[in-house]
Structure formats: structure tokens, C-alpha cells
Specification:
By secondary structure, the protein is an alpha+beta fold. The protein is about 70% helix and about 10% strand.
């Protein structure tokens, strides 16, 4: 009976073989899984380290320049002294600020790995040393007394510029750390892809014997990984709102949560970057307005005075009304977008004023289809083009010049054309201007107003929209702008 029992037990050698085969099949799979887990843990650690670096840098990006500029200014003007600045709760000792910044970023030097980020850290530390020297100069002047003008010059030409450079270094460091996260994600995708290929070979070898069991294992591993791989690829392409939402109870869940968390942080960071870029563009717009308004205002007021002195009071009143309307539309309650009708009123007021000043050399015509009045346009989009036509085209023409402004619908687009019969440009000069306009506003050396308009159009409407320029020497220049048809919503741009 016992022998019979032994014989019955020997009836299952195939089962043992199958078990052994499964073990043989699973051992490489387990090895790959360990490799994947190690890669994921390394990825998570690297990601956390980079995020920590960016957090430290971002804190200084938000506060350092403002705090130091305020403190050193009040020290320079004698509001506080270097000896009692600690008593002023709203101020911080500039040497303490520099010391904290230097300590933290020297530590970042030891844990930062990518070459570009290290280069900006080195630049930052050099600028910190220079800044400390300039603060020493301010302190020497303050202690010497009666060197207010010299201190103000030091602040304007050295300290403020250095704090701005330091802030730029920090921002570039943050940018390249963000790129490091993208590179890290690409590496992770490659590792995941390698893992999937190896798994496929193992599964293919074992599928005949363990089809049912292994298929379940395969689905439990590959499906989330494939989903995660697709999600990470979409994140790498800039879709920061996509989420994996994997609810398995293994390391893939950790990776999924990390990827989802990373996507959310990247989304917040990119929104912050976009907000910062918009603030920069707003500052450039204000700069453009500041360039336009003072000289334009002074010249217009001179013309009004001239008209009054010449007893042409009716024309003077008309210019005052046009000037008032011009600046009302320039301000536009701080709105970025206005209606096309408002922009037409703006350039019409501008040209009425300029015509009073340059009536001997200027004629103009505005022909904008009333059917597009209700659509939106960027404020100060057409006025710089008209100003450019006047000051660079008509003003240098020996005979009377003419500016024609047209606007009409073309399919689902709106096209504006500002054409003048001024001096025009040579082909080489025209090509240089086109190249300058294609650059970001902060990089252009000429054509700032046109570059500002072109960049604002692309930023707000899309890269497929913008400006085109044609010109013929001694015949004139034509600037066309294309934007999409979008209704002006109530309260938009405010």
C-alpha cells in the first residue's frame, strides 16, 4: 500500500517539471523586476533631489533681489546703518542675505550633476562675490559720509544690475533643472521599454506551458506599464494634465503616483513660467508705451500751444479731444485685449494728432470693415505699425506721404495691412528687419516696437499668426498682420 502510494506520488513528475520550468521562467523575470524597481527608486530619488534643488532656487528667485535691493537702498540713503539694520524688522542685513545665498548654492554645487546647471551656479557664485565687493564699497562710502551721489551711482550701475544677473542665474538654473527632469523621464521611458522587450521574450518562451498563469501575470504588469509609458511619453511632449491613475498595489503604483505628482508639479511650474513670461511681456508693453507717450505727449502739447498762439482755437480744441481719446484708449483700464473698433478709434486719434503736426507731409486713410468691429485685438497692436510708417517711412520722404490702414475678414482670419509710400528699404535692410522681428523682444537690437507686436501676437494667439513685411526702396513699405477671429468677451483682458 505504501509502495502504491509512492507510485501514485510519482505520477506527477510533469507537475514538478512545470513548476521547475515556471521557476526557471520566473527567475529572469524576477531579476528584471528587481532591475526595474532599482531604476524606479533611482528615478524617484533623482527626481526628489532635483525638485528639492528647484524649490531652494525658486525661494531665492522670489525673494532675494527684492529684499537685498530694498535693504541696500535704505542703507545707502541713511535710513538705517549697517550696525543697527538688525533692529529694523522689515529689513535684512545684505551680508546675511548674501551669506545664506552663497551657502545654499555652494551646497547645490555638490549635488547638482548636469553641466548646464553647474555653469549657471558658477556664474551665480561669481556674481555673488562681485556683489559683496560692491556692498563693501557702499559701506565704505556710508561710513565716510557725504557720498550720496556716489552711492546712488553704485546702486544703479552695479548693485541693481548684479542682483538682476543673480536672479537671471537662478532662473536659468531652474530652467536647466526642469530640463534634467525631462531627460530623467526619457531615461525612465527607455528603461521601461527595455523591460517590456525582455519580458516579451521570456513570456514567448514560456507561453506554451504557462499560458493561463503567465497571461494573468503579464496583464498585471504590462498593462499598467504600457499605460504609464504612454502617459510619460505624453508628459514628455508637454501634456502636463494627463494622469496615469494606476491603482495596483505594487511598485508601479509608486511610480504612477510619482509620475502623476511630477506632472502636477510640472504643470504648476510651467504655469508659473508662463505667468512670468506674461509679466515680462507686460513690462515690455509698458516700456513701449513709455517710449511712445512722453515724446508724443510733449510734441502734441507743443503743437496745441502753437495753435493757441496762432488763434486757431478750434483746431487746438480738436487736438485736445483727440489727445484725450488717445490716452484713454492707451490705458484701457489695464486691459490686454480690446475690440477692433476701439483699436481703430485709437489709431484714428493718433493720426488726427499727427496730421495736425505733419499736415504738409501726411495723408492717411483708415478702411476697416465694420463687420469685424466686435472681434478682439491686442491693445497697441496697430499703433506701433502706424508710428513706424510715419517716422521711418513718410517723415523722410521729400514729397507728401500717405498711410493706408485696412482691415477685413479672410475666411476665419482677420488681416490688417498698414501701407505707406515712404522711403522704403533695400532688400538687405528688409531681411535684417525681418530677422530682428522673429527674435524674442529682449534679444532684438532694432525694431523693438514691431518685435513686441509680433511676439505678443504669437504668445496670445499662436505661432501660426503674426506679422509679414514687404518693402521696396523709394516706393514704400507694407506690413500685414493676421490674427484669428475671436469674439471679445465681457470683461476680457481686464
Amino acid at each position: 500500500m505504501a509502495d502504491g502510494q509512492r507510485n501514485e506520488k510519482i505520477k506527477y513528475p510533469l507537475k514538478m517539471k512545470i513548476v521547475l520550468l515556471m521557476i526557471v521562467a520566473l527567475v529572469p523575470l524576477l531579476g528584471i523586476a528587481v532591475y526595474l524597481i532599482a531604476a524606479l527608486v533611482n528615478y524617484r530619488d533623482s527626481y526628489d533631489s532635483i525638485v528639492s534643488n528647484m524649490t531652494i532656487a525658486n525661494n531665492y528667485n522670489l525673494n532675494f533681489k527684492e529684499e537685498l535691493d530694498e535693504s541696500i537702498y535704505k542703507l545707502a540713503v541713511g535710513y538705517v546703518s549697517f550696525n543697527n539694520i538688525q533692529e529694523e524688522k522689515s529689513l535684512k542685513d545684505p551680508y546675511d542675505l548674501i551669506g545664506e545665498l552663497r551657502t545654499d548654492f555652494r551646497e547645490l554645487m555638490t549635488i547638482t550633476t548636469d553641466r548646464e546647471s553647474l555653469a549657471w551656479l558658477q556664474s551665480l557664485l561669481r556674481n555673488i562675490d562681485t556683489l559683496e565687493d560692491r556692498i563693501d564699497d557702499v559701506r565704505i562710502n556710508v561710513e565716510a559720509g557725504e557720498r550720496y551721489d556716489e552711492n546712488m551711482e553704485l546702486l544703479d550701475n552695479n548693485v541693481y544690475i548684479l542682483t538682476e544677473l543673480i536672479q537671471d542665474d537662478i532662473q536659468y538654473y531652474i530652467y536647466y533643472q526642469t530640463k534634467s527632469i525631462e531627460d530623467l523621464t526619457d531615461q525612465l521611458n527607455e528603461q521601461i521599454s527595455t523591460f517590456l522587450v525582455l519580458c516579451a521574450w521570456l513570456i514567448g518562451a514560456a507561453v506554451v506551458l504557462v499560458m493561463i498563469i503567465f497571461s494573468l501575470v503579464l496583464k498585471s504588469i504590462t498593462n499598467p506599464l504600457e499605460r504609464l509609458c504612454k502617459v510619460t511619453e505624453r508628459i514628455a511632449k508637454g501634456e502636463f494634465t494627463v494622469r496615469a491613475k494606476i491603482h495596483t498595489k505594487d511598485e508601479i503604483r509608486i511610480l504612477s503616483d510619482s509620475v502623476d505628482n511630477m506632472a502636477e508639479k510640472l504643470r504648476i511650474m510651467m504655469n508659473q513660467i508662463k505667468d512670468d513670461e506674461r509679466k515680462v511681456r507686460d513690462a515690455e508693453l509698458r516700456l513701449l508705451q513709455e517710449q511712445i507717450n512722453p515724446h508724443f505727449l510733449y510734441n502734441t502739447l507743443d503743437t496745441i500751444v502753437w495753435l493757441i498762439e496762432g488763434n486757431d482755437r478750434e483746431e487746438a480744441v480738436s487736438m485736445v479731444v483727440s489727445l484725450s481719446e488717445f490716452f484713454r484708449l492707451v490705458l484701457s483700464k489695464g486691459k490686454e485685449f480690446i475690440t477692433i473698433r476701439e483699436e481703430e478709434m485709437h489709431i484714428r486719434s493718433y493720426l488726427e494728432i499727427q496730421h495736425a503736426r505733419y499736415r504738409d507731409i501726411l495723408e492717411y486713410d483708415i478702411s476697416i470693415d465694420p463687420g469685424i468691429y466686435k472681434y478682439k485685438i491686442l491693445k497697441l497692436m496697430l499703433q506701433p505699425l502706424v508710428e513706424n510708417a510715419l517716422y521711418h517711412g513718410i517723415k523722410y520722404k521729400r514729397a507728401k506721404g500717405r498711410i493706408d490702414i485696412t482691415g477685413k475678414q479672410e475666411g476665419d482670419l482677420i488681416r490688417f495691412i498698414v501701407r505707406d509710400n515712404g522711403v522704403g528699404m533695400e532688400e538687405t535692410e528688409l531681411e535684417r528687419l525681418r530677422e530682428e522681428i522673429r527674435k524674442p523682444c529682449k534679444e532684438t537690437q532694432k525694431g523693438f516696437g514691431l518685435a513686441n507686436v509680433n511676439e505678443r501676437i504669437r504668445m496670445n494667439f499662436g505661432m501660426e499668426y503674426g506679422m509679414e513685411i514687404e518693402s521696396v526702396k523709394n516706393e514704400g513699405t507694407c506690413v500685414s498682420i493676421t490674427i484669428p477671429m475671436e469674439y471679445f468677451g465681457e470683461g476680457e483682458g481686464s
